[in-house]
Queue: 3 jobs
Job 1
Amino acid sequence: MIAIGSDHAGYELKKAVTAWLGENKIPYMEFGCMEGESCDYPQVAEEVCGRVLNGGADKAILICGTGIGISMAANKIKGIRAALCTDSYMAKYTRLHNDANVLCMGGRVIGAGVAEEIVDTFLHTDFEGGRHQRRVDMISAIESNN
Ligand code: RB5
């Protein structure tokens, strides 16, 4: 189950991504801007990430204009590793090496075709573990120490 949310600037790309999820029979729950109305990306990030931490979503997708603000907000939440990706290489390696649980994209930065490739890669690449687990644990330690 995927939780997906956007603000107004990410709304069009969210529509394209939810259509793609539907076509690929990937279940999702949708949050944030539902009709193009203005909404605040930090609030969307908090609601969607909550679903990953204790609300039945395995991973999440967050979209704002640049992808930056919504990823900043998401990464303030303990247990969230949000990765802003602009291509599928980044999506592949953030899953392999960082065990990212939230994908962020910029609706004013990339088009639907690139976004679909990114989402496909993000959802279908497993964490490599090993030495990367130690580094992910170090990220968690920073959360606990600060
Ligand atoms: C909204 O205008 C815009 O600031 C927001 O979508 C995002 O790009 C922030 O980082």
Job 2
Amino acid sequence: MSVSPDRHPQVPAAESSSAKLPRHVAFIMDGNGRWATARGLPRTEGHRQGLEALRRTIRHAGKIGIEVITIYSFSSENWSRPETEVSFLMGLLRRFVQRDLSELHEANTRIRIIGSRSDLEPGIASLLQEAEDLTRNNTGLNLVVAFNYGARAEILRATRALAQKVLSGDLKPDDITEADISEALDTGGLPDPDLIIRTSGEMRLSNFLLWQAAYSEFYFCEQHWPDFDEAAFEKALNNFCSRERRYGGLDAKAL
Ligand code: FPP
């Protein structure tokens, strides 16, 4: 299976000079807390520096012509953190949208939010909606923000939506295709991630893009997210470019 622009009409074809550059890179931005603790700082300082690393990453992705980046900025499991940390992260998202939205819009970035909005504070939900609405027609980098996101909950929402279509007679169970499921997910219309980068040494997916990651390449690095910079990004991309993706087939040399 290859990701073709035809399957995902909303996303324009890559303008990158390198054919091997991933179209879509997803980030599990891990290690903010450990970065701060190692320096004797409060965990919130790690998140603050994490936002700086995120800004660098967005700029670099736009500069080198990546089509889509997805960032795991708050998982549905993160509500179990201490209330002070949760409210700091909510405030950080608010500040990020308020301060960076006009710059992102000017840079032709299209923002899309994935995750559940039903239990978000109304102020935050409307800010996220505003960011999506303002940038809807932009044609540059697609910035997908996974906020209050969990992949199993996303699959459940999609399953319910398809079940409703069956119930109303618009869809027959036997006619449901993999493409229907992809379309019903929050990421409908976007290409699947080619590369998923996780910082800070943990090697797991943590309920992130479970359906979409079927053929993703994974890259794990030891750096904590606040230390992730252009050089670290390039290293991950070079590593990706050296891999051969077979999608369950055979190496060309073996045929
Ligand atoms: C994981 O590190 C990081 C998060 C849960 C939040 C990610 C947030 C940012 C990178 C800042 C930008 C945020 C927004 C909302 C735009 P951790 O706290 O789990 O680190 P640890 O595993 O070392 O404790």
Job 3
Amino acid sequence: MSAKLIKGTEIREQILEEIIAEVAEIKEKHGVVPGLVTILVGESPASISYVTLKIKTAHRVGFNEIQESQPDDLSEEALLGLIDKYNKDDAINGILVQLPLPKHIDEKKVLNAIDPDKDVDGFHPVNVGRLMIGGDEVKFPPCTPAGIQEMIVRAGVETSGAEVVVVGRSNIVGKPIANMMFQKAAGANSTVTVVHTRTKDLAAHCLRADILIVAAGVPGLVKPEWIKPGACVIDVGVNRIGEKISEKTGKKIAILSGDVDFDAAKEIAGYITPVPGGVGPMTITMLMKNTLKSLKFKLGII
Ligand code: GUN
């Protein structure tokens, strides 16, 4: 193996320790801790496992946390009512509605109903706009792209002037990370190309990348011959390709695969993120960071 592994599990520990220390300091000086509400509608196993981990992490860093587990047939009106309740709740700094929502609920309407100052996911159009403007305007960078940028920076990879190629154009990852990497800012200043399902020659674009960020949701899409030797490869794919019995718990767990052919790519890349244990742990970590930030904005200390 020639590539250096960028481990989200390790970076997560560093950042969570920083958050724990800040929460303790704010508690001592201001007598408050961040408050986060997680809203889960339905019983999708993937969503349940993500939300459970978010709750566990919130506890670990000393936040107050409220769980709203709602049935699959919850009406849109009732969900909007819940959001309104927490928008008005002074003890809540962050509102997280786990996506995807059941088909009968208009996701856009729901995301737009969250107070932009409590939108720790960074999905509200106001926060998307703030991200686009950049600089001091940015309040809550969306969690997965923020985690990706943090990993690149903490690994010591130069971003200024780098060719960044983003594979995928989703609202959650592709569009925001592309926007963040070309900003005039530390950890950015890159030249960015976004490629997608209609791009004519994916391989040729990827091969130019100094930093290749892959968020396509297609297992093994990126082949080793698409990778420039020494490039930094960030694999955002979390594809469930089967099930196995966990040696630790004896329970059935998903077998995960990324969007990059990891075993071959690691012989060519300079840096690479594994799946699992790469970008995944960073998303929840940055959610904690945004929730803490929300309280700091409220207290006027940033
Ligand atoms: N579903 C998949 N990723 C996310 C995320 O980052 N936030 C929320 N709220 N739902 C998700």
